[in-house]
Every structure is written in structure tokens, then in C-alpha cells.
Amino acid sequence: MKKIENIIGFAVLILSIVLGSALLKTDMLFFRWVIGMAFGYVLTRSFFGFAGSINRAYRTGSTKLMRALMLMFVLSAILTSAFLMFGDVKVYNLWINPINLGLIVGGILFGFGMSYSSCCATGTLTDLVTGLPRALITLLFFGIGVFVGFPLQARQSWIKESWFKSGTGRGVFLPDLFASEGKSGYLGAIILTALLAGIVVVISYMYESKRKKNNQYSGVGSEQDQDAVKELDTHNYKLFSETTYKKIFVEPWSLTMGAVLLSVLFTLLMGVTKAGWGASGPFGFWFGRLLKFFGMSVDSIVAFTGGKPVPYTMPFFENPSFVQNIGIIVGTLICLLLAGSFTESFKSELKIKAKDVLIFAIGGFAMGFGTRLSNGCNVGALYTPIANFSLSGWIFLICLVAGGSLGNYTLTMLNKKR
Description:
Helix content: over 70%
Shape: globular
Number of strands: 0
Radius of gyration: 21 Å
Distance between the termini: 37 Å
Oligomer: single chain
Number of helices: 21
Order of helices and strands: HHHHHHHHHHHHHHHHHHHHH
């Protein structure tokens, strides 16, 4: 079975590239398709995710993923500065998000939803392959939450306006705070970013230490598998061998490897598109297109959302964000097929209970609605803003942790009553 999956995996990989190159109308769309597949592959191969950084810490005591996130944030900020320090900042669509009540409430809601659905925005896409029922329910209600939140995001000042501004963007751009020190303030911004990340790392170690001392640490199976990976035996190395194949396609990558590769992909995406990584907005557009399919007019959709008709009328595979999101799903599929673990992963989460449907629906809606209040999700309000030196990203992180902790606590209480 695994060998059959491997063959199918190579076929899907080749077809994805060939058909993407032939059918997608522009080189930019093809780039977004490939970068999406790369994101999906790396996220899956390294067991990397944003929801897990909080859920793993609460449920198992492990903070390895949270520490890996901090490495990714710092590295991405440093790489981003290479564009901004020696280029024209105005060329880039920097996500310097506003700091306001919407950011706080949205962050808490998103964290809460992550705990209920055990995934985030990008995680919902990868989980469509690894946990279809949970991800499909989450995606539907995520889209509903985004769609319902569109009017608020478009019209409410407490979401659009920032309490604090530094001059660049809609919020606080860290280099503006260090403009007088030279290097356009980027050196100070990088140091501050590293300091904030360092504080999170120290707190993570302290938390993990406390859990271990209280015998409340169980660890994470995927992290144990990553730690168990051994170096390639070069003494008995053969190119065409099962050992070599496993090293290239099967063995999990470390969280550090995931952090580094995601940073490189993010930097490549920003360098080519002149913008960051977003994922949640399309979910709302997809729900709007679903409403259109069932007879709702585009004029009614636009009047409700306060947006533009283009996302609901243009051909699906001509929207760069849509293409990139679908690419993430395909990249996940390719990863599992090449590793020969697709069937096992797919079957493991097929069965869900009736109560789980409600929990996943609540989680999806909370995340989706939260993204419209905070102007983004785990990548749009957290990762990209931090990599773009926006103070809003760090505030969102605090709210995310608070919401995730609250969600996990209430979920524990619910499970006890079952």
C-alpha cells in the first residue's frame, strides 16, 4: 500500500506542476500555486502549526513548537529587513495592523476557536487531508464567521482605527521607534523583536519546567518522532535504497527545520508579491460564492459585506489567494503520499461524535469572526505583522494565548461532563 501511495504521490506532484504551469493564466498565479504547495509540504513534514503552539503546551506541557515559532518570527523579520532597509518601503504592502479593541477581542476569539477545532486558518487547509470531517466542519463555519464579520471590518472604527500610530501603516511600525539610531531604525527593530521573542522563550521554558516538576508533562508523539530521527549512515550509503528514500521523503523534519524553511518561503513570497502571507479572507469569499451558487445575488452579497464584487465573480483559479490556499492542500497531500502515510492518517480521524460537530462548528466560527475583528488570522494578524515589524502582532500573540488557554480550559470542562 505504501509503495502505491508513493507512486501516486510522485504522479500528483508532477501533474500539479505540469497542469499548474499549463492552465494557470499568469506566472504570478503559478508562483502562488507552487509556494502554496511548498507551504503545505513543509507544515506537514515538520508537524508545524500555530494552533499547536498553545494546544500542545496546555494539553501536554510541551513548548517546543512555541519556541520554534519564535525562531521563525525572528528569522523572518531579519530576512524581511533585507528588502525594507535597502529598498523603498512604499513598494511593499506591509501589514502594520491597527492596535485597538478589535485586535484584542479578535485575538482572544481566534485563540479560543483554535482550541476547539485543534487547528488554525492554515491548519484547516492541511487538515482537510489529515482530518477531513473536523477540518470540513471547521472550514464551513470558519467561512461563515469571516463572512458575517466582513461588514464590521469594513465599517466599524473600533476595528479600523488604531489607538497608537508611529507614522508608517495603520499602527505601530517598530523601525519608526528607532529612526534616530541610523540604519532607518531596522537594527533597533530587529533587536526588539529578538528581545520579545526571547521573553516568550524564557516563559515557555519556565512553564514547561513547572509542568515537569508537577508530573503534568506528557510530551507530544510527533515531537518524539522528530527527536528520534537519526543521521544518515554515510558508511553504508546507497543512493537507490529504502534508507535513502526514507531520509528524503519519509522521516519527519525537525521543528527547527520547519521554522527555517517557512521563513525562507515567507521571504520569497514577500519578495515576489510585495506582500505578506494571508489565509483567512478567502474562506469568507468561498462562503459568499456558495451563497451565490444557491441563488443569492452578488449585489446582495456586496451590500451586506461592504466589499467588492470581484472575489465572488472572477474565475476561481484567477484569484491568487484562492490558488495559494488550494496549493497548501495539495502540498499536504503530496507530503503524505510520498511518505506512504496518507491512508493511515486519513482513516484515523474519519469517525467523530455528534457533540464534536458542535465543538468544531463553534471553533470554526470563533476563528472566522475573530479574524475580521483583528484584521487577520494566525498568519495575517500574527506571523506577517511580526515579520513586518508591526507591534500589533505581539499584542495578538498575547491575546491568542489567553483565548487558547480559555478555550482549552472550557473544553476540558465539557469533556469531563460527557
